[in-house]
Amino acid sequence: MNPLLSKPQLTPLLSNDALARLERMRINAERRFTNRSRGEHLSGRGGTSTEFHDYRDYAAGDDLRYVDWNIFSRLHRPYLKLYRQEEEMHVVAIVDASTSMLFDNKLLRARQLAAAFAMMGLVANERVSIYAPAKQGNSVDRLPPCRGRISLRKAFGFLEQVAGGGDAPLEHAIQSVLKHHKGRGIVAVFSDFLTLGDMKRAFNMFFSAGLEIFAVQILGPSEIDPEVTGDLRFVDAETQHTLDVSNAADLLSIYQEYRLQYQADLEQMCLRREGKFLSISADETVETVLFDLMRRRGWVTS
Known about the structure:
The chain has helices at residues 3-6, 16-22, 69-75, 106-123, 152-160, 170-180, 199-208, 221-224, 252-272, 286-296, and strands spanning 26-27, 41-42, 52-57, 79-83, 86-87, 90-95, 127-131, 142-146, 185-191, 211-219, 232-235, 242-245, 276-281, 300-301. With 302 residues, the protein is α/β, with parallel strands linked by helices.
């Protein structure tokens, strides 16, 4: 029996059953942007791992510690032992904590998914950092890089206290995050992506920083299928700008056309940068998203 199932609830964000399943899962990074330090991702570079890989001729400047002296004594030629070096993947989770995310439980779902990615990274001994930008400016609410199971409570505690509410445009928030971040790996962005800014530039910044994009668009059920009639005044939750609309029902087809086109554009932006994109409803359970949608799409493996 998995000990997680018999323990008190580790975090209100995820059930112990979900945590037990996540413990056996890993993030499936395809681009393999990794750092030359210890982790679970292997390469053919020389290193200090115990897994032998191959030999090559000794070259001036090579570390003498890796010369195979037994072969040298027989052949009188120096050969260097090569090992499969274990590499570290940095897992960056960005939770959009702006005011629009407070609508229809979107922020809750974003925090839950970020907690799941943090756990998969920490259990795999990757370096994990979490950012929750809300307000405009250079200051970003963040959990600095941490590693290992010992950091699980710290990561969960950080996400549990993310309250949300702010006016930070997502593209500006991403720029602020990258001022703090160093390291290659993957970046998981959990947001509604409801911004007037240029997401193409933001995704380019991720790509240039050596981060494979895992973008999850979270929309409320009433944003996916709104039920509106008559004359309405719409108020932007973050800027407080208003828009008066007559016969709102007549505009629904235009709204749906725009929403689906924007969703397709976001997906193409990610794919062109060798990333991944998924759009979900905040009504979908975190278990459905993780163990069904993401697993079938190859985002995670067990």
